[in-house]
Amino acid sequence: MGLSVAEAAVRRGLHLVPVSFSSREKVKTTIQVGQTDIRIYGPSAREDVLSSVADEFPDVIVVDYTAPDSVNSNAELYCKLGLPFVMGTTGGNQQLLYKSVQDSKNYALISPQMGKQVVAFLAIMRIFAEQFPGAFSGYHLEVLESHQASKKDTSGTAKDVIASFEKLGVPYDMNRMVKIRDPDQQLEMVGVPKEHIEGHAFHLYHLTSPDDSVSFEFQHNVCGRSIYAEGTIDAAIFLHRKVQSKDSKRIYDMEDVLREGYMR
Ligand SMILES: NC(=O)C1=CN([C@@H]2O[C@H](COP(=O)(O)OP(=O)(O)OC[C@H]3O[C@@H](n4cnc5c(N)ncnc54)[C@H](O)[C@@H]3O)[C@@H](O)[C@H]2O)C=CC1
Ligand SMILES: O=C(O)C1=N[C@H](C(=O)O)C[C@H](O)C1
C-alpha cells in the first residue's frame, strides 16, 4: 500500500516527502517514485528522522500502512511529535489509538477502509440498521472474505458490515467467518483474477430466512490497490485542510471525507 499511495500522491500533484520506513533495519535504501528518490529508514532511525521531517515539512501528513502490531506504537510517536496522520493500517488497540490522539490533541484520520465506494456501502448498511433495527431477525448469515496471503488479520471491513447485520437482528460468531488466504482456493473457489492474487479484497455476505425461502447476497470485490490509494490521498488533503483551519474535531473517518464532497 505504501508504494501505491506514493504513486497516487504523484499522480495527484502532491509533494512527496522523500522519506519512508521499513520494519527491517537492512533494506534497499532508496526507491524512486515519479521524480522523487525516497530514502527508506529502519526502525531505529524512526524518531530522529520523523522529528527532522516535522521541522523541515510543517505541512506534512504522515500515511501509515504497516502492520496491526505497529498501529499503537506508530500512532504514539506521531502524536508525540505532533505529526498529523492518516491511519490506514487495520487492527491494533483501536480504543488506545483514539485515546492517544485525543490526549495529545493531534489530528488524525482513521479508517480500516479507504475505498470511497466501499465506505459509502458501509454507511448505507449502518443507516439501514439504524432505520430498521431487527429487520432480519431469525435470518442466518454466512460471511466469506478473501485477501492476499500476506494479510495477517481478519478483514476490518467485514467486521464493520457484520456489526450492522447484528443490529439488523442477525447474531454472528466471528469465528465462523471463512477467511481465504490460499492462492489456489482464491483462483478456483473465489474467482479472483490471477493477476490480483497478491492484492485483492473480496467479501461475500449471504443471508437466508429461517425457512430457507428467501435469500439475500451482498458482495464487494476489489482487485488491486488503487481504490484505497486514491481514497488515502483524498483523506490526506482533507486532513491537511482541517489542520490548517484548526478544526476542533481533530479525529475523523472516511465518512467525514465523503460528506465534505470528496465522493467522486
Ligand atoms: N484502510 C484500508 O483501506 C486498507 C488497509 N490496509 C491495511 O494496511 C495494512 C498494510 O497493508 P499492506 O500494505 O497490504 O501490507 P504489506 O505487508 O504489503 O506492507 C506493509 C509493510 O509495512 C512494513 N512495516 C510493518 N511494520 C512497520 C513499522 N512499524 N514501520 C515501518 N514499516 C513497517 C512491513 O515490513 C511491510 O513492508 C494492513 O493492516 C492492511 O489490512 C490495506 C489495504 C487497504
Ligand atoms: O489488507 C487489505 O488488503 C485490506 N484491508 C482492509 C480490511 O481489513 O478491511 C481493507 C480492505 O479489505 C483491504
UniProtKB/TrEMBL annotation:
In this chain the Dihydrodipicolinate reductase C-terminal domain maps to: 118-258
Report the subcellular localization: Plastid, Chloroplast
Domain named Dihydrodipicolinate reductase N-terminal: residues: 1-105
Where is this protein primarily located? plastid
Described by its record, this protein's role is as follows: Catalyzes the conversion of 4-hydroxy-tetrahydrodipicolinate (HTPA) to tetrahydrodipicolinate.
Put simply, this protein is called 4-hydroxy-tetrahydrodipicolinate reductase
Q: Which GO terms describe its molecular function?
A: 4-hydroxy-tetrahydrodipicolinate reductase; NADPH binding
Catalytic activity entry: (S)-2,3,4,5-tetrahydrodipicolinate + NADP(+) + H2O = (2S,4S)-4-hydroxy-2,3,4,5-tetrahydrodipicolinate + NADPH + H(+); (S)-2,3,4,5-tetrahydrodipicolinate + NAD(+) + H2O = (2S,4S)-4-hydroxy-2,3,4,5-tetrahydrodipicolinate + NADH + H(+)
Q: Which Gene3D superfamilies match?
A: Dihydrodipicolinate Reductase, domain 2, NAD(P)-binding Rossmann-like Domain
One Gene Ontology cellular component term attached to this UniProt record is: chloroplast stroma
Question: Biological process GO terms, please?
Answer: diaminopimelate biosynthetic process; lysine biosynthetic process via diaminopimelate
Species of origin reads Panicum hallii var. hallii
User: Sorted alphabetically, which NCBIfam families does this protein's record hold?
Assistant: dapB_plant
**Pathway membership:** Amino-acid biosynthesis; L-lysine biosynthesis via DAP pathway; (S)-tetrahydrodipicolinate from L-aspartate: step 4/4
Q: Which family does it belong to?
A: Belongs to the DapB family.
- State its Enzyme Commission number(s): 1.17.1.8
Q: Which domain of life is it from?
A: Eukaryota
UniProtKB keywords: Amino-acid biosynthesis, Chloroplast, Diaminopimelate biosynthesis, Lysine biosynthesis, NAD, NADP, Oxidoreductase, Plastid, Transit peptide
Q: What is the lineage of its organism?
A: Eukaryota, Viridiplantae, Streptophyta, Embryophyta, Tracheophyta
Enzyme's top EC category: oxidoreductase
Enumerate the InterPro entries for this protein: DapB_C (IPR022663), DapB_N (IPR000846), DHDPR_bac (IPR023940), Dihydrodipicolinate_Rdtase_pln (IPR011859), NAD(P)-bd_dom_sf (IPR036291)
